[in-house]
Amino acid sequence: MKFIIVMVVALSYVLGTGLSFFPVFGHASPVTYDPAPNTVLDSSKSLPNEVKITFTERPELRASNIKVLNSDNERIDSNDLKTIDSDKTISTAIDKSKITPGVYTVDWSVLSKDDGHITKGSYVFTVKDKNISQVINQQANPSTNGSIGYVENYTTPDSIVLNLNIMPYRVGQNNFTVNIDHENGTAVENIRNVFLEFSNPERNLGPIAESMEKTKVGEFFKSGSFISQEGNWQIKVIVQRINDYDINHTFEISIKN
Ligand SMILES: [Cu+2]
């Protein structure tokens, strides 16, 4: 049940594309993905033969797209978009000969036959090898230290301090921590949800929308390979407060491999 609520919240966020967090009915919005977002696969053998996304409305094939990109921004799909199962599901085949351990980005864009609106988004999955799985296990532990990472603050006009920490701060698996405090250092209590939204406009990736998990009052955490390629990324932090305005701030970061 908790998972369903998280999915509904995440979906309503994707649907609203940041303008509103109320669920929007209409537009072709993703319902299910295969492989699922943030999946870590043991090897290319466990990868399905195609990437498949089911939407709430019927995609117009000629104006829709699924691209599967490696961390060098090269397409590893067969560029053969087709409708399958029902006319709300589209898929593209994966060229498995091009799969090596690493992070892959699925970038989709869909024109709805039903209401003529365009929606787009991205998500990531990881193909690991033994070495990568060790690294992931180390990095999944927030107490792992030894690198400086990324730390940046933003203070809102109403004196709320938003702190973003990224560890280890590179392409691939990172730990993201957001702290929301008053200027005197006390944690902000009236927080309903915190979302991260990753975009790389130069490479036309994103938005990758993720819901964060609360670790304590005023602190939220998420781990994942959302920074899937090097380059300039925008990380938008969205803080929904109870009985107060949402806080939005975009951090501009630059990642080198
Ligand atoms: Cu629409």
UniProtKB/TrEMBL annotation:
GO terms for molecular function: copper ion binding. Residues 27-127 form the CopC domain. Its main location: other. SUPFAM superfamilies: E set domains (SSF81296). Keywords: Copper, Metal-binding, Signal. It holds the Pfam family CopC. It is found in: Cell envelope. Coiled coil: none annotated. It comes from the Archaea. InterPro entries: CopC/D (IPR032694), CopC_dom (IPR007348), Cu-Rt/internalin_Ig-like (IPR014755), Ig_E-set (IPR014756). This is CopC domain-containing protein. One of its GO terms (cellular component) is periplasmic space. One of its GO terms (biological process) is copper ion transport.
